[in-house]
Amino acid sequence: MKRRAIAWVVAVGLLGGSSAYAETTITVAAFPALDAAVKAAIPLYRKLRPEVQIKLVSLAYADHHVAMTTSLATGSNLPDVMAVEVGFIGKFAESGGLEDLGKPPYSALQYKDKYARFTLPQAQGANGALAAVPADIGPGTLLYRKDLMDKAGVSEADLTRSWESYIEAGKKLKAATGAYLIAAAGDLKEIYIRSGLKDGDGVYFDKAGKSLVDTPRFVKAFELAKAARVAGVDAKVSPWTNEWSEGFKRGQLASQMMGAWLAGHLSTWLAPNTKGAWRAAQLPGGAYASWGGSFYAIPSKGANKAEAWEFVKFMTLNKQMQIEAFRQVDAFPALVEAMNDSFIDAPIEFLGNQKARLLWKTAAEHIPAIDVDKYDAIAQEIVNAELEKVLEEDKVIPKALADAKAQIERRARRR
User: Fold this and answer.
1) C-beta atoms surrounding 392 within 10 Å
2) What are the pLDDT digits (tens) for 133-158?
3) Per the domain annotation, does 166 fall within a domain?
4) Of the candidates 342, 296, 260, the residue with the CA atom closest to the CA atom of residue 111
5) Which of 188, 172, 191 is nearest to 180 (CA)?
6) CATH number of the domain enclosing 208
7) Cβ 188 vs Cβ 180: under 8 Å
């Protein structure tokens, strides 16, 4: 009996049942609203791994990514698990400060068929290293106020037939209701530059690192934004400002193109008073694009990499957890198995009981696996600045894009 007890104690020790292991705490750094998914995960994960404590550190979106950039550069104040929005993946993937999750002991590429097909390529650097794995995705969608469109005699087909018909519909809407079609003309540019891409294409750079911002795709995107401004259908309001939120609450903004997750933001805090008035549609002109998406990475200098990886797998490969995140924050799952769950078929009360998730699933299946570049964030900043000059100062589009390309190449050389 005594020998059996000793054997049990040894076995527990070998399985990680020591007091040191029991007291393991992993730190997860995230941002709103992804932090809500982590909060929801903590009690569920504790049932599976009661010996692992999870400490959540959450900062505002921009502050989080600035802090993580600094931590990776200095090797200090690093979390065990780091949430990364897709716009920063390219930069972080090239930093050299993250574990290559494609290699042992992680070998995450074995799960590539489990994730939406376009996600893992987004997280691979130029050297092929896998910097992160996807938690959620942002299928691009058009959300619109059906009540306002009905009042103006505008149909969903008018909104989606083409980009030009979308702007024309905005003119009718403005004349009949006084509401603006979109918050900012730049929204058209943001979606258009991400549409029509093929697997392996980049938004701002090609595979050789050459800037693409003077190509016909960007010319057309700038032309659409300019046309919207000339037509007077944009409210000249920047996303995520108080004016933006108030515009939704007061019915002054009648549509918005973003990731499908925006429906959740509208229903919970942006404009809950507009419940039932909104509908979802595919993007104009038959376009499919990804808008946002979140990943989890593991810093190379993290203290608890094995435990961190177990938690990352729970957040990204566990169907129940993916569905729970979907319920909590409308984070459209990156896991294909979760996409095929019956929850996708459920009507969304905020959207007039529309089964909008089926639309978003279709969009997700059509989104190409595009490449990311470490200079994407810089290119976006420069392109946005040049677009403002086109919209506000009547700068001619070819000159604006030529100047943007020159600035991008200059900034890239300096770095």
Assistant:
1) 10
2) 999 999 999 999 999 999 999 999 99
3) yes
4) 296
5) 172
6) 3.40.190.10
7) no
